[in-house]
Write a structure and sequence with these properties.
Immunoglobulin-like; hydrolase; 22 helices; 27 strands; signal; 3 domains; Rossmann fold; binds beta-D-glucopyranose; beta-glucosidase activity; globular; TIM Barrel
Length: 740
C-alpha cells in the first residue's frame, strides 16, 4: 500500500509550475518573486490553538489572517488530516500559495507510544530504536505532520535535569549512535516519501549542561569540552543529512544559543557546511530580552538572524521586525534570502509544491490509528528497555502459578500515564493503554490470584492507605511493589533538586518489607532516581522507566520470563544528589582515590564513596555471561593500522539472553588530560543458554582522536588501555602502544 502512495506522489513531481528544474533553481525562482514581507513570513512559525507546548501568546484570528496573507511559513501543534488540510487551505489563499510546514514533537512514538527516550537508550539496541522512529514517522505523517522536533541529542550528566528522559544519557558515543538511528528512522527512504518526516537535531547546543540541572539555566564550559562531549552528536546528525536543527534556550558562555554566531554560523553553517534550516526553540528569540542580550524585539530579531536562526518559533518578532531591519540597513537582505531559501528548499523536497495536501489523508490516518503491528513492536521494545538492577536469590522470573501475587504501589493501575512525558498524539480515541495490573493479570495462571493495593499517592504525605496495603501484602506469596516518579515529574521544566521516591513511597516500601514477604520492586521514572535503602534491602529490582502504550504487557513479559531483560543503564545512578554531576568518563585528577572509600587528601568526599550506586552500562540478566580473556591482534601498532579486539562470551546460565559487550579505551598521557575511560564501541549479542559467541571490535586511529588545547582534532602516539566488559566498572584491561 505504502509503495503505491510513494509512486503516485513522485509521478506528480515535475507537474507543477516549476517543471524539471533542480530544487535550488526552483527556490531561486520563487525567491525572485517574493516580497521582503513574504520572505520574512516563511521564517515565522506559530503554534496551533488547541494545546501549546510553551507559553502561548494566543491571537488565533490574527494568525489565520496572516496565513492567508502569506505571512506564516509553518505551524506546530496542528495535526490530523482534517485540521492540517484546513490550515493548508488558508495558505493556498495567499498570493504565492506557498504551503505550510506542520511540525510536532513526536518524541517517543506518536499514536503508539514507546518507552521514554532514556529508557529506549537503555536497550542499547539501535535496530529497535530506528524501527520505533520508522513507526512514529509513519503514524505522524499519516496525521498530516511533516516534521518532528526530534531527536534530542543533548548529552546530559545531571539527572536533576528533567529532560534527561528525552535524550540518550551521559555518553557522547552512545548518544551519537542513537541519534543517527533515530534520524534514519524518521527520514526513512528520504524526504518526500509519504511515510517519512523531517527530523530535527536539538537543542543546539549544550542545553543538557544547564548549571545545577535547572532547566533553561546558563551553560558555562570550555570550548574543548563543548567540542568533545556536547557537539559530536550534532555534527554526526548534520553529516547524516538531518533536515533541520533547533537551537536552545540557554546561553553558552554568556551568549544565547539562539544568536550564537560561533555555534550556528561558524560551525554549523560554516565549517560543517550544513544546508538545512535552524528553528529557534519556543520563544527563544524573544527570551534574549530577559537574558539581557537584546534590549527589545527589534534587537532580538537582528541578533537572531545574524546568529543563524532561520525560523522564529512563537517569539513573534521576525514578522514585524525583519522587514524593518532590512529596510533600515541593519540586516543585509541576503540573510533573509538565505534563511527563507533554506526553508523553501525543504518544502520542495517534501513535495509540498506538487501537492500541499499530500500528507493530509484521512484514509491513511485511519490505517495508522491503533495499528496492531505497531503495538506488538511496542510491547517488545518496552520489555527490552527494562534494566534488571538486582535479583538476589533469583526471585525473578516469577512463576505464573504463584498462588497469590500482590501488586502494591501508586502506579499499578495507571493507564494514560504510561505514555510518559512528551506524548502529544491526538487524544481523540481511547487507544487501549495496558496497565501494569492488566499486564500481570493476563499472564498469571487462571488459578492464581492477583491482589492490588495502591498504598499511597506519588507526591503527598498521606499514609491512610498503608494499613490496607500491608494487609494485602500479608495475604500474598510474593509482592510486586511499583514505585517511582510520576510520569510528569520528568520532562521539560521538570527539574528536581532531590531525586528520591517522592511523597511517602519509601515509607510504604519499608512497611511492606516488614511483612517479610519476598518483594520485587519495579521503579517507574524518566530519570535516574536515588533509592539506596531499596537497593540495599529489596532483593529484586527492575528499572522500568515509562514504557508507553504496551507498558503492562512489556512488564509482565519480563516479570514472568517471556523476555529475559538485557537493558543497561545509559547514565550513572548517583548515591546522593551531592555526587552530581557524575559520569564514568571523568578525568583522573592529580590525586585520584585508589579505592572507593579512600578519603585522605585524595579527590573524594569525606562523607561519601566515590563511585555511583549503579554505574553507566550496568544491567543484569536472568542468565549468566562469562567472558573469556580478551585477545588483541597486536600489543604495538603503527600509523593507520587496525587493532582487532575479540572476546568470547558464554551463556552459562539457565536462560537464553542478550548481553551488551562494551569496549572502552584510555589514552594514558596526552597534550591534554584524557578521561579514565571512553566508550568506543558496543555490541548487543543474543546468546542461547549453553552457547558462546565470539565478539569482535575494530579500532583505528580515528578512535583515538581528541580535541587538544587549540581544538585540533587528532591523535598522538602513546600508550592506551583497551578495556572490555559488561559495564563501565567491570572490565578487563590490556595495554598497547600505538605510534604515528
Ligand atoms: C522545547 C522543544 C520543543 C518545543 C516545541 C520547547 O519548549 O524546548 O524541545 O520542540 O517547545 O514544542
Amino acid at each position: 500500500m505504502k509503495r503505491v502512495y510513494f509512486l503516485l506522489a513522485f509521478s506528480a513531481f515535475g507537474m507543477n509550475a516549476y517543471g524539471q528544474k533542480t530544487v535550488d533553481q526552483k527556490v531561486a525562482e520563487l525567491l525572485s518573486k517574493m516580497t521582503l514581507e513574504e520572505k520574512a513570513g516563511q521564517m515565522v512559525q506559530y503554534s496551533g490553538f488547541e494545546y501549546a507546548t510553551g507559553p502561548q501568546q494566543s491571537n488565533s484570528a490574527a494568525v489565520l489572517e496572516e496565513i492567508k496573507k502569506g505571512k506564516v511559513g509553518s505551524m506546530l501543534n496542528v495535526a490530523g488530516a482534517e485540521e492540517t488540510k484546513a490550515f493548508q487551505k488558508l495558505a493556498q489563499q495567499s498570493r504565492l500559495k506557498i504551503p505550510l510546514l506542520f511540525g510536532q514533537d513526536v518524541i517517543h512514538g506518536y499514536r503508539t507510544t514507546f518507552p521514554v527516550n532514556l529508557g529506549q537508550a537503555a536497550s542499547w539496541d539501535l535496530g529497535l530504536i530506528e524501527r520505533s522512529e520508522r513507526i512514529a514517522a509513519t503514524e505522524a505523517a499519516a496525521y498530516g505532520i511533516h516534521w518532528t522536533f526530534a531527536p534530542m541529542v543533548d548529552v546530559a550528566r545531571d539527572p536533576r535535569w528533567g529532560r534527561v528522559m528525552e535524550g540518550s544519557g551521559e555518553d557522547t558515543y552512545l548518544g551519537t549512535q542513537i541519534g543517527l538511528a533515530r534520524i534514519k528512522g524518521f527520514q526513512g527512504r528520504g524526504l518526500g516519501s509519504l511515510d517519512a518526516v523531517m527530523a530535527c537535531a536539538k537543542h543546539f547546543a549544550a542545553y543538557g549542561a544547564a548549571v545545577g540541572g535547572r532547566d533553561y539555566n546558563s551553560v558555562d564550559m570550555s570550548l574543548r569540552q563543548l567540542h568533545e562531549i556536547y557537539l559530536p552528536p550534532f555534527k554526526a546528525a548534520a553529516d547524516a543529512g538531518v533536515a533541520t536543527f533547533m537551537n536552545s534556550f540557554n546561553d553558552i558562555n554568556g551568549i544565547p544559543a539562539t544568536a550564537n554566531q560561533y555555534i550556528q554560523r561558524n560551525l554549523l553553517k560554516g565549517k560543517w557546511n550544513y544546508k538545512g534550516f535552524v528553528v529557534s526553540d519556543w520563544g527563544s528569540i524573544g527570551e534574549m530580552i530577559p537574558h539581557g542580550y537584546a534590549k527589545d524585539a527589534n534587537e532580538a530579531a537582528q541578533r537572531a538572524i545574524l546568529g543563524g536562526s532561520d525560523m522564529d518559533m512563537e517569539s513573534r518578532v521576525y514578522m514585524t521586525e525583519l522587514p524593518k531591519l532590512v529596510k533600515e540597513g541593519k540586516v543585509e537582505a541576503k540573510w533573509v534570502d538565505d534563511a527563507a531559501g533554506r526553508i523553501l528548499t525543504k518544502k520542495f523536497e517534501m513535495g509540498l509544491f506538487d501537492d500541499p495536501y499530500r500528507f493530509s489523508n484521512e484514509k491513511r490516518q485511519k490505517e495508522q490509528t491503533n495499528n496492531p503491528e505497531h503495538r506488538k513492536f511496542g510491547r517488545e521494545f518496552g520489555s527490552k528497555s527494562i534494566v534488571l538492577l538486582k535479583n538476589q536469590g533469583n526471585i525473578l522470573p516469577l512463576s505464573k502459578t504463584v498462588k497469590t501475587v500482590a501488586l502494591i504501589g501508586p502506579f499499578g493501575k495507571e493507564t494514560v500515564a504510561n505514555h510518559g512525558f512528551w506524548s502529544i498524539a491526538f487524544k481523540d480515541d481511547n487507544q487501549r493503554i495496558v496497565s501494569q495490573y492488566d499486564g500481570i493479570k493476563n499472564q498469571l495462571d487462571k488459578n492464581s490470584t492477583l491482589l492490588y493495593a495502591k498504598g499511597c499517592n506519588t507526591d503527598d504525605q498521606d499514609k491512610s492507605m498503608f494499613a490496607e496495603a500491608v494487609e494485602t501484602a500479608k495475604k500474598a506469596d510474593v509482592v510486586i511493589m511499583t514505585l517511582g516518579e510520576g510520569h510528569a515529574m520528568s520532562g521539560e521544566a521538570k527539574s528536581r533538586s532531590s531525586i528520591g521516591f517522592s511523597g511517602v513511597q519509601e515509607d510504604l516500601l519499608k512497611e511492606i518489607a516488614k511483612t517479610g514477604k519476598p518483594i520485587v520492586l519495579m521503579i517507574n521514572a524518566g530519570r535516574p532516581l536515588i533509592f539506596n535503602w531499596a537497593a540495599d534491602n529489596i532483593p529484586a529490582i527492575t528499572y522500568n522507566w515509562w514504557l508507553g502504550t504496551e507498558a503492562g504487557n512489556s512488564i509482565a513479559d519480563v516479570l514472568f520470563g517471556a523476555v529475559n531483560p538485557g537493558g543497561k543503564l545509559p547514565m550513572s545512578f548517583p548515591r546522593t544528589e551531592g555526587q552530581i554531576p557524575i559520569y564514568y568518563n571523568h578525568y583522573n585528577t592529580g590525586r585520584p582515590a585508589k579505592t572507593n572509600t579512600e578519603r585522605n587528601y585524595v579527590s573524594a568526599y569525606i562523607d561519601l564513596d566515590n563511585d555511583p550506586k549503579f554505574p553507566f552500562g550496568y544491567g543484569l540478566s536472568y542468565t549468566d555471561f562469562k567472558y573469556s580473556d580478551m585477545v588483541l591482534s597486536s600489543a604495538s601498532l603503527k600509523g593507520n593500522q587496525t587493532l582487532t579486539v575479540s572476546v568470547t562470551v558464554s551463556n552459562t546460565g539457565k536462560y537464553d539472553g542478550e548481553e551488551v559487550v562494551q569496549l572502552y579505551i584510555r589514552d594514558l598521557f596526552g597534550k591534554v588530560v584524557r578521561p579514565v575511560k571512553e566508550l568506543k564501541g558496543f555490541q548487543k549479542v543474543a546468546i542461547k543458554k549453553g552457547e558462546s559467541r565470539k565478539v569482535e571490535f575494530k579500532l583505528t586511529p580515528e578512535d583515538l582522536k581528541f580535541f587538544d588545547d587549540e581544538l585540533n582534532f587528532d591523535w598522538e602516539s602513546g600508550e592506551f588501555d583497551i578495556m572490555l566488559g559488561t559495564n563501565s566498572q567491570n572490565v578487563q584491561t590490556k595495554r598497547i602502544i600505538w605510534t604515528q
